[in-house]
Amino acid sequence: MQESLQKLQELLQKLFRADAADLDFGIYRIINYRRDQLQKFIDEELPTIVQNALDANTEIESAREELEDLKKRVKDAFGEDVLDADGILIDETIKDRPLVKQYLEAQEQLGSPQTRDQQEDTVYNHLYTFFSRYYDNGDFIPRRRYSQAERYAVPYNGEEVYLHWANKDQYYVKSGEHFSTYRFTSQGITVTFDLRDVDIEKDNVKGAKRFFIPVSDETTYSPDIDEIRIPFKYRPLNDEEKKKYSGQKQQDKIIDAAEPEIMRCLTGHYDALSALENQTEGETTLGKHLRTYTRRNTADFFIHKDLKEFLNRELDVYIKNEVIPISDLILTNVNLELSRGGGGNSSINQ
Fold it and tell me: Would you kindly state where each structural domain of the chain is located, as residue ranges?
């Protein structure tokens, strides 16, 4: 149970950008304002909600206890060897005995009721599956899933022609033209990436590829306000830079070359260097944020205009198709009615 809960909590941490707690601009400022509340929900309130829901549903636990009691009584009456490890009857000669018959009927009706821990695992795994199928690189967007049955529902009002696409009802944000300042804090020091010069395409004419290039030698530190400012330019590479950063992952190569140069500009400012050199998940704080900044600014993303309504609708479909398949319940009920009515006299035919 702990493993499934932890997996779900880690996914929710990604959804609510737990790795961006030190950012201080734009949407991150709003998230950080509610971060304590979000963290409390993930760590404390969510497990409590699940446990309270399971406590309120005592039927499954009662059914499991009833089946276990019948199983014990059968073994006591006819011996341990009459049932295998899964509770299946081995000795067919006693299947018509009243106690055994009662046990077999209960087993057929109840199946294999889950234990409390198994129920919690099931809930957490379903929650993980549901949210992960709509999360892709920070966007809430249905991910393509291959299966025999359809995995998504399309809201439809009976139009003769209806157009639908994966990111319908979402606002498209061209992030490279949206963020101009990136700010984070480390060990009490504010670090600002200041985009000073932007060279963008004009009149929709596509030109040379552009990159975020740190102006490393102009990095400054102001001890009186504990702030490091690292200026950037967004422009194409010149001929010398094209040779230096040739090949794949050019933006990463630019960052790798700039990081030690930025550090050299802070020589003698030990507090500032410590704030940037601090290791986070195998890389320096500066390296981590340089990559986050450039990737976030060169990636496009979507914002759903009514995410709550979207997820509520999709959750309803998910529950009916994958948690409690309605089609299976209908088929089971039909078969039950046919078996009771002997086919022709069933209530279905009436």
Answer: 1-133, 180-302, 312-350
